[in-house]
Amino acid sequence: MDVVLEDAAGRVVGVEVKASATVGARDFRGLRALAEASGDRFRRGFVLYTGRTTVPFGENLHALPVSSFWSMPA
């Protein structure tokens, strides 16, 4: 797990960063473990990768292109 964010209410979001143009289920192992350990506090998990497509990988788990952070509409 690269980053775990927790707000004052205890809600948790996890972020993995991969230097890869593809993602697979294996890339979500750490996020799934975080979700299991956090229980109801877990809100979302993201894998940031160098690909071009946002891909769902189960409930509250998504792969996001890292480029989406600087190409967001104003």
Please provide a written account of the structure.
This protein has one helix at about 30-40, and strands at about 5, 10-15, 40-50, 55, 60-65. With about 70 residues, it is an alpha/beta fold. The chain has one domain. The chain has a 5-stranded mixed beta sheet with strand order 1-2-3-5-4, with helices on one face. A hairpin with a 5-residue loop joins strand 1 (about 5) and strand 2 (about 10-15). The radius of gyration is 12 Å and the shape is globular. It starts with a strand and ends in a 9-residue tail after the last strand.
Question: Gist?
Answer:
This protein has one helix spanning 29-38; strands at residues 3-6, 12-17, 42-49, 55-56, 61-65.
Helix content: 10-25%
Q: Write the H/E string, N to C.
A: EEHEEE
Structural class: alpha/beta
Characterize the biggest β-sheet: 5 strands, mixed
Count of helical stretches? 1
Low-confidence parts: none
- Read across the widest sheet, the strand sequence of neighbours is 1-2-3-5-4
Give short descriptive properties of this protein.
alpha/beta; five-stranded mixed sheet; single chain; 74 residues; 14% helix; globular
What's the arrangement of secondary structure elements?
Elements: E1 3-6, E2 12-17, H1 29-38, E3 42-49, E4 55-56, E5 61-65
Parallel strand pairs: 2-3, 3-5
Antiparallel strand pairs: 1-2, 4-5
